[in-house]
Amino acid sequence: MDKPTSTSAQVRLRLERYIRTFAGIVIGVFLVWRLYNVLVVEQKFGADTWVRFALSGLILGGMYALIAIGYTLVYGIMFMINFAHGEVMMLGSFGGFFTFEALRFIPAPTTANPDLNFLNAHPFISVLLAFIVGISISAMAGYFLERIAYRPLRKAPRLILLITAIGASIFLQNLAMLLFGPQRKNVVNPDILDRGAGWILKVSGNDVLISYTGIFSLALSTLLMIGLYILVQRTKLGRAMRAVASDKNTASLMGVDVDDVISKTFIISGSLAGAAGVMWGIHMGLVNHYTGFLPGIKAFTAAVMGGIGNIPGAMLGGMLLGVIEATGPAALGIDFQLKDVIAFSILVLVLIVRPSGILGEKLSEEKL
């Protein structure tokens, strides 16, 4: 009986592989045909417009990548999807907003400008304080989420943890709405990070604005991703995190404090989400209790696209998703309001065509 069962399973797996390959070919042919029509035949947009789309996508992609890394860190350690991670990012964005608001009302007059406030008198310190506050709030949120919501259920079935994460997400959304109100808050940046200012790049004879906030966000995102990769690969904490992700019991026998490593992982993932939240407020200019929901789900899509549990995959997935979301509507000739549909369609397509992601899913033998 074992041999026929094994043979039928192999046939089924082979058939599923053929179906996925066929679906990928069909989708690829359709996309190539559509891109050819839009880019070559119709030529609706000039080179300057595509550069604007690409820059916008890279900036968004950097933020998505930071949030996606938080998903992939927690998944690698606990084999769960922390769907409250977007709300952790939202709390960080509120931390940055309220820091800027407080500094706006601290007077710092000079002889040349008697009405000057601290925000514009000391812009670098103001931005640094905003990041410190936003990152600290999100790091604490990640820590307490793990201690209160997830640690008591660590040995429960994964479905229970998933439901708990969704409940935590809804709780944090409603808590933020009750504390801060449902209205959107306008983030007022220091003058050096004016959202309408930047460098002008000439493309095909047209001006393309490279905003200060965009370059700042992209550069900081890149530095944080590099820093995290070095931390995971080169430090004692990083080795402990990789050991716990591989096998908790063996790591514990080797002297690794598993609970402490998991707590620190949630703190690190929360810190990255908080940094992304502050950048979101600085670049986008608006925050509310719903700010983290869509970026959180899209970052999850990015993590799946790159390969869940794979840190370089999360970085690559975030960048790719940002560019695809920004350029996709124009490339496919559809309404720009459907950009969210494109992002979530990618999640479905990746799960159908390549469930392990672009760089492959990283799982320990225990999880397999």
Describe this structure in words.
Mean pLDDT is 87; it is low at 364-368. This protein folds into two domains: 1-43; 46-353, ABC transporter involved in vitamin B12 uptake, BtuC (Orthogonal Bundle), CATH 1.10.3470. Helices cover 72% and strands 4% of the residues. Strand 2 (198-203) and strand 3 (206-211) form a beta hairpin. Helix 12 crosses helix 13 (339-353). A two-stranded antiparallel sheet has the order 1-4. Strands 2-3 form a two-stranded antiparallel sheet. The chain contains 13 helices and four strands. The protein is mainly alpha-helical and 368 residues long.
Summed over residues and divided by their number, the pLDDT gives a mean of 87
The total strand number stands at 4
Low-confidence residue ranges: 364-368
Radius of gyration: 23 Å
End-to-end C-alpha gap: 25 Å
Structural class: mainly alpha
Q: Report strand %.
A: under 5%
What is the count of helical runs?
A: 13
- Overall helicity: over 70%
- The CATH architecture of the largest domain is Orthogonal Bundle
SSE order in H/E notation? Answer: HHHHHHEEEHHHHEHHH
CATH topology of the largest domain: ABC transporter involved in vitamin B12 uptake, BtuC
Summarize the structure.
This protein is mainly alpha-helical and 368 residues long. The chain has helices spanning 2-42, 47-78, 85-104, 118-121, 123-150, 158-180, 212-234, 236-246, 248-253, 258-284, 293-306, 311-332, 339-353, and strands at residues 185-186, 198-203, 206-211, 286-287.
